[in-house]
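It is worth pausing here to work through a concrete case rather than discussing structure prediction in the abstract. The textbook approach is simple: state the sequence, then state the predicted structure, then interpret. We follow exactly that order.
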Amino acid sequence: MKKLILILIFINAIFATTCNKKMFSLHIIQPVSLKTILADLVNECKINIILKDANAKKMINQNIEFVNIENVSFKKLLETIFEQTAFFYELKNNTLYVSSYKTKTFKIDYIPNSITGKTNINSDNYNSNSDDEDDSDTKSGENSITSNYKFDFWDGLKDNITQILKNTETKYKKPVIDRNSGLITVTGNKNQLEEIEKYINHLNERLHREVFIDVKIYSVTLSESHKTGIDWSKLSLSLGYNKYVENPARPSKIIENYESTLIRSKNIIGSQSIFSKAVFNVSGLLNFLAQNGNVNTVSNPKLVVLNNQKAMISVGKKIYYKYSDSLSEDENGKTTQSYTIGSKFVGVLLDITPQISDKGEIILNINPKINELLNPSDVDVVNRDRPPNTKENTLMSVVRIKDGNTLVLGGLIMDDKELKVNGVPILKEIPLVKYLFSSREQISTKKELVFVITPHIINHTKKTTLKDYGYDALPDLEDLDVK
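Step two, the predicted structure:
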């Protein structure tokens, strides 16, 4: 039995290589049908030809012309012939398979999730979920304006691929997408698969690009003369530079002077300013902000984000509260009050979505928000029929910025209210009596938040360090006096 198998394999190898050792020349000026050319190959190379689908049998008579090749291999001959047609071909042993459709699987490395969210004024409902749950309901008694959004990468991808197939040919088959493994299987003709391959390659290239974002958030407690906010029209940065001057008494002697100049933003639109990396310095910005009030650093996060993906920054705290839920009565007629424990975020939310353009610029979709309590004392109220009231300030901006340039964004003003209780220790905590031994003062100050955002496109083709993105080398442990 083993000998018979060996003989059969040897015979197949002979047939498969009958034309592999030959050289071919083909000169076509007048139109010749593909069927005629394939018939000559059957006679010359003693091969079988199988048309795999009905459309291939229907289109086998299409004409070929303007071919001029000399002394090429059998493989090159087939490649040249089928380049002129809309057919796929595959040579296995002694059989040439010809088809008008082909199934191809593409790979996309992407996290298989969807993002849904809701933004409510006077609430902190901002969610990022991995399901399609409808989150549009609000509690009774709340006055809210709701903005919902939903993003599902794979659903969008399927719609795009289907549209490309449809635009290329009127007849198409729906793509099959396995979002868990990141596989896209498409069946189509040559034109359709070529367009899908271009799209997938371009998509993979863009998806895997990354942006390093440096964010600095400052809080400016406005002085009495700037209660309406920072005057951004006067924004200028003091930048020091060296200037060399000749000494008149000794012409050969050069004196080095340290001078300063005021650098204006090249683009000022209200509180939004863009500075090139060549002129921007943080010290100059802080000097300008200090002219408007006391400056404090709120946060300085640094993050790496995939192209076209949302990054979230949250700085604040959760306020926990309880409010009356329902009354229940037992069999003895005793009434019990039940409460619901909830929480509300108070602070700063910032989401940034970067998109890298074909020119190497970065388009930033920036959405900062401030949530604050309308009345801080509301948290201390025991019997409530709803959560404490908050207010929200929101700013939405879309900016195009060059790699490494800095965006300064302001204009979000908040009323920082603080309830200060003074009194005799212990006695000021006793109910009823506390009013005789304590005083309460509500302090209100106006603050403006300033966001300084510097994005950098990460170049994976060369080795980079933080120094390439504008950071100095880390100090030695001795300099930090670490023990």
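Step three, interpretation. The first strand starts at residue 24 and ends at 28. Residues 1-17, 119-147, 238-247, 250-266 have pLDDT under 50 and may be disordered.
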